[in-house]
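Board notes (copied after class):
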Amino acid sequence: MDAPLTQQFPRRDGERIVHRTWTVDLAAAGKLLGRGADAARLLREAREMAQHFPRWVLTIALGRDRALCRRCGGLLVFDRGLRCVECGAAMAAPRGALLAWFGVLPPVGLDGLGALAERIAARPPPFHIVGERAPIGRYLLVPLLAHYPAAFPERELRVAYLPGFFSIPGVPADAPNHQVHLLGSGVMCLFAPGEWQPALSCREVLQQRAYAHAIKLLNFAAGRKRAFAIVS
């Protein structure tokens, strides 16, 4: 028998950082995909994410951001139903909520971005993390929400930046933009009409398309206005 899927999330306990760990309640999560949800497909998605993006957590999105706990503002996770990762309170999903993954992309190098790197390092947007390690040098961790439409997998998975990303100098306004492949509300335009394939998983979309989008958009913000003309 396969081991149950677990996830963990860091939180502050006084001066310490502790990790809360839980078993992912995929049955509760699947209800957000509607009556026709494919339980085997959701399990496969979750196992791929656990292997390739182990720090991402399954949560819910409302509009263009995470739906948070009404009591304490903590992240909602699928732990014996839908529950706050901070205070443990059980919650009902608000109307219109979508099943989503939340986490950060692999490190995006900053040292090739010129003056923009200094500005990001001096004031990272909320929930974005700046660090440094060899051989990458300085890097930025960009948080994203990848949410499933109710008709998934017939309809494509959507990947969105959090609102703070658009405070980075040089990043265009959060509105539909053909030049930089944005649909509005932070959502990346990752597929041409008819290009989406139902077999594509969240892991594949993040690895093959979303990561490249973030790199190109930061290069665009740094003044490389033909960044999206580069095939990657």
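Comment from the instructor: Residues 6-102 form one domain. The chain has two domains: 6-102, 105-229.
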